[in-house]
Amino acid sequence: MAGVAVIMADPKQSGERLKYESVPLPEEIDKKSMRDEIVGSSGALQKVLSLVSKVAPTDATVLVTGETGTGKELVARAIHRRSHRSSRAFVCVNCAAVPRDLIASELFGHERGAFTGAIQQRLGRFELANGGTIFLDEVGELPLETQIALLHVLQEREFERVGGTRSIQTNVRVIAATNRNLRAALAAGTFRSDLFYRLNVFPIDMPPLRERREDIPVLVEYFVDHCTRKVGKNMQGITEESLDLLCSYPWPGNIRELQNVIERSVIMCETENFSVEKTWLSWLAQQPLATERKIPLDLSEKLAAKEIV
Fold this sequence. Notes:
Elements: H1 14-19, H2 43-55, E1 62-65, H3 72-81, E2 90-94, H4 103-108, H5 125-128, E3 133-137, H6 144-156, E4 158-159, E5 168-169, E6 173-178, H7 182-188, H8 193-199, E7 202-205, H9 216-231, E8 237-238, H10 240-248, H11 254-268, E9 273-274, H12 278-285
Parallel strand pairs: 1-6, 1-7, 2-3, 3-6, 8-9
Antiparallel strand pairs: 4-5
Helix pairs in contact: 6-8, 9-11
């Protein structure tokens, strides 16, 4: 993606904003081509979806917690799509992926000359998300000085660009996520308690895949169908041995790990029936087995358990 999608909060500022909107945004701005389905019908997932439907129409700050790969960003996108801000920007920032000395500039922007290399004014993600939603992934990785600035935004709905002196008003819904234990971080002094309570207005905890095993068959079918179309293959079914092993494996990497295993196996599979590649079959077979279950094998069968948010 090369362009920038900017929603103007005030038409009077459009000249200033357009002047600087050459700063590229990668995949952080929501696009129709992005896959944003939440698939499954387990009780654990239904509890999450119920919380999403309740909080989405509000402007409450949401804190999504859970292990890596459980789908925290999908929940954030679902909240945004069901909110009155759905027609505006959804801006995603991975706080762990930005260097500590640049994260403040990334979030709040900077003025020309604010630091070495700041050769022009740059809009931050809060300005680009004005009127919409900002998703702060891995918020537990923010340095303490940036935590203070974020707390000010949540309290006062305003911020200053790095090197700036003018307060900028913002109208942004904040959704944060982390796979860290923030209460332990509070005790260790690496995360501010006042910021935690500002973020934890409406907590949503994403269950790991091992706690929603009944969703695994649906997810397997979904990812097999998605991956076969992606690589141009046509598969008619799933081998029972592979499906039983996929359902019994504990999936420490959760849904992301399941998707990667299936995509790799689809690429390697040379038959009309999907099967996990032999190296993974031997690996999975060594893991502790869960209770066996009977799984439908026909990929074309409609599964009522599949829910698209």
